[in-house]
Amino acid sequence: QLRAQNQVLKKGVVDEQANSTSLKEQLKMKDQSLRKLQQEMDSLTFRNQQLAKRVELLQDELTLSETKGKKSKKSGESSSQLSQEQKSVFNEDLQKKIEENERLHILFFEADEQHKRLEAELRSRLDVLETDAAQHQAVVDSLTRKYTDTIEKLQNDKAKLEIKSQTLEREAKDCRLRTEECQQQLKNLQAALGSRLEESLCIINEKVPFNDTRSNRYNALNVPVHNRRYQLKLRDLAGQALTFVQDLVTALLNFHTYTEQRVQIFPVDSATDTISPLNQKFSQYLHENASYVRPLEEGMLHLFESITEDTVTVLETAVKLKAFAEHLSSYLCFLRKILPYQLKSLEEECESSLCTAALRARNMELHRDMKKLTAVFEKLHVYISLLALPSTKSEGLLRTNYSFVFTNIATSLHGFHDILKDISKHYSQKATLEQEVPTATQKLITTNDCILSSVVALTNGVGKIASFFSNNLDHFSASLSYGPKGGTEFISPLSAECMLQYKKKAAAYMKSLKKPCSDSVPYEEALANRRVLLSSTESREGLAQQVQQSLEKIAKLEQEKEHWMLEAQLAKIKLEKENQKLKHSLSGNLAESMQEHSVLPNAAEQKEETIEKSQRETVKTTILLNIKISFFFFLLYQALDNESREDLIKNHYMARIAELTSHLQLADSKAVHFHAECRALAKRLALAEKSKELLTEELKLASQNISRLQDELMTTKRSYEDQLSMMSDHLCSMNETLTKQREEIDTLKMTSK
């Protein structure tokens, strides 16, 4: 806007400069003309002064001549001729002077008028220039105010932007610090999650034999997530559809029954005369309508009963829909069977003598409507049969075509409603025309009214069904097409049936798990059990320590036994050597003593052996006794507290597992939260950096614009000041010239006077 205003002001300044130059040239021309006029005026004034002096001289001479004439009357005659000649000369000269004076007065008057016109023009131009100067001054003042305001605004914006940039820089620093912290936390969490993922993958590879979701055949046997809300909504919708179908069935029964009565009455009454064989066959077929119409209600009722809260209702599991489609096909066969008879009956009515042209036209319209009605039922049968295919053949209908089939059913129902409206309209017109026939009986009129009411009921029922189906079209296409997790669809109806069996088993298992828990152990009893458990563990530890000590003692005793056995063998060897020495050295007397001595060591050896055996037996008995006692106490502890101990250990480990799983879930949730927060902070940091760059660019552009506007403002100010000074000087010079001209005019007036 400022640039546009600048350009406009520049154009205005250029125009004013051109106007000022043109005015200067005009002023120069006027000054030249004024100078010429002044010179002429000066010459005229000088000439006038000369003439005035001459006139005065002539007057003086005249007076002198008159005085001389009075004095010398005598010489009058002589001088009369001279005076007459002089008078004639003077008169001629005076006449010339008078004419010249008149011409000068005329020139003076013309010059005065021209000067007045020029003065008026110059004054008007002066007024215009003053107004223009005032307007330009106002524009300049407004622009200066505007530029000062814009400069102040830009300075304020600059200060705000600087403050904002500082705050953004601080926020960016904080965000960088937080992002670094979050990145560090993210790295730690990624490392922890990676280790946990490896552990879980190892566990899955070791514990899970195979993944059934990879194969569609196995995945189809998995029970999908049960959506109770969808099931309740479907059951509600099925109940509404059942009521609508019941109304439709009653309306169809009434329509076919009253049509049969009409065939018996019109065009020939069966009570007075025999009707045609065509109408007899038609009435016979119409009499069988209940056997074809009633199964529609029964099929819909069975379909409603199959949709319960516990089942999974999809097109693969909706087996009862096939029965409803079969009942609809039987009713369609019935309609195809009676259609030619109905058309021939209408043609027969047209051929009767009582049928007028208008009635014949109505009959032909009904003729066309009945064909359309049968065609609409054929369409509905085709689409409902397609919906029943997934429950019998898996490849009969693709899941991607479900919505297409549902939309076509909705359009067919709306077309069915339009055809029934046409039938009711044409039949009402036909009934009014038949009432005007003179041979129309009261029985025919009442039958027509009943048929018309049944057609109206049929129209209303079909309209309700069409609006109901179109309103719930999205729900049907969404709720009747969900399958197992990870899979696109059920593979076959057999797999869907197996899935339902598995669902029943899973529900029974969940019900068995929902049994009321046994009463918890009282606090005092739990404390007592804890004391018993602690005492039993202490006694067990004491027995283990005793067994360990006894084993150490046994090992030491074994070592001592081996030591003493070696020493005993050495003593025997020494004893044998001493005995051999004594045998060679002593005599026979000494032999007896030697025998006695030999008996003594044997006795000593026997004593030592008996002592060693007794020690061994005592050690063995003590060890066995200790083992038996510990084993007895262990068996007693196991017999007494086996069940309570197992329960306590089980509860302890279950509580520990629950605590660990809760910690694990909390860590997972924290990791997800930190990851989301880190991503959000990274996005915020990127957005902040982008906004910072944009703001810095805008700040640079704003500062450049401010400097440029300041320069332009200074230049415009200087140019306007120069122009105003020039205009003021020009106006001063014009005022001076005008004052001079006024003074000269005043002097000319004075001189002319």
UniProtKB/TrEMBL annotation:
Keyword set, alphabetical order: Coiled coil, Endosome, RNA-binding
InterPro entries reported in the protein's UniProt record: PPP1R21, PPP1R21_C, PPP1R21_N, PPP1R21_six_helix
Cited SMART domains: KLRAQ (SM01254)
Domain of life, source organism: Eukaryota
Location of this chain's protein in the cell: Early endosome
Domain Protein phosphatase 1 regulatory subunit 21 N-terminal: residue ranges: 1-94
Presence of keyword Chloroplast: no
Location of the region described as Disordered in the Swiss-Prot/TrEMBL record: 1-25, 66-86
UniProt xrefs under Pfam families: KLRAQ, PPP1R21_C, PPP1R21_helical
Skewed-composition ranges (Low complexity): 77-86
GO molecular function, one term: RNA binding
Coiled coil start-end: 126-192, 540-585, 678-719
Main location, first listed in the record: other
GO cellular component terms listed in the entry, alphabetical order: early endosome; membrane
Protein name according to UniProt: Protein phosphatase 1 regulatory subunit 21
Gene that this polypeptide is encoded by: Ppp1r21
